[in-house]
TrEMBL record:
Annotated source species: Thioalbus denitrificans
Record PROSITE patterns: CYTCII (PS51009)
GO BP term, pick one: electron transport chain
InterPro entries: Cyt_c/b562 (IPR010980), Cyt_c_II (IPR002321)
One Gene Ontology MF term: heme binding
Keywords on record: Signal
Keyword Signal annotated: yes
Organism lineage: Bacteria, Pseudomonadati, Pseudomonadota, Gammaproteobacteria, Chromatiales
Protein name in the entry: Cytochrome c
Signal peptide segment: 1-32
The UniProt record lists the keyword Signal: yes
Length: 207
């Protein structure tokens, strides 16, 4: 099967405006937080969205997803609820390219003392698009376990949580504080890639 960030191939749109994400290593003063609990109405919409995603999956992957614990499914739904941009066309690789562009724009805003650019870019990064079929189809089958996916809570807070904190700091004129969070976001991205993607371009066909 495909590797979430290794093969970088992704799935279809989740019709509704809700979410998923990835990040790691919580920074100083930022404990790994569970995403906010969706309202009952949101939860119903998210469950419909997840069912639509499962219908797009190959049988072996769909079986793994259905076999996840209720706690893991709730975590995924809570993460999904933080995103309102979904695509029925682009892949996870496309999403990562967009995230990288927002990351560079966020840094440019900090370096040029432009709080609006830094804040807007950080918020776009935190609310990145959800690719076709969600995140799970881009992971290796061996990654679709309760133990592995439980890491998404800290990943989410490290990357998206700190991006939101950076945006708030920039808007308050605390550009030094915003700059201090860039490293935490970067560490989250790197940690998530190490767990799920591996080294890009490495071929199993080379000795």
């Amino acid at each position: 099967m495909r590797n979430a960030f290794r093969a970088h191939r992704p799935p279809r749109r989740a019709i509704l405006a809700l979410s998923l994400a990835c990040g790691l290593l919580v920074g100083p003063g930022a404990s790994a937080q569970q995403p906010a609990k969706p309202t009952p109405e949101q939860m119903q919409a998210l469950q419909q969205m997840m069912q639509q995603q499962i219908q797009l999956m190959q049988p072996e992957l769909a079986q793994r997803v259905k076999g996840l614990s209720p706690e893991t499914k709730q975590l995924l739904l809570r993460i999904y609820s933080q995103h309102n941009r979904h695509s029925d066309r682009i892949t996870l690789r496309h999403v990562m390219h967009e995230v990288l562009a927002d990351y560079h724009s966020m840094n440019a805003g900090i370096l040029t003392d432009n709080p609006e650019q830094a804040a807007d870019s950080a918020r776009r990064l935190a609310n990145h698009r959800i690719p076709r079929g969600g995140l799970l189809p881009y992971l290796k089958l061996d990654d679709i376990t309760d133990e592995k996916l439980s890491a998404l809570a800290s990943f989410n807070d490290s990357v998206e949580g700190n991006a939101k904190r950076l945006a708030a700091a920039a808007e308050q004129g605390d550009m030094a504080g915003a700059a201090g969070l860039v490293g935490e976001i970067t560490a989250g991205c790197v940690g998530c890639h190490q767990m799920f993607r591996g080294v890009p371009g490495i071929s199993p066909l080379l000795k």
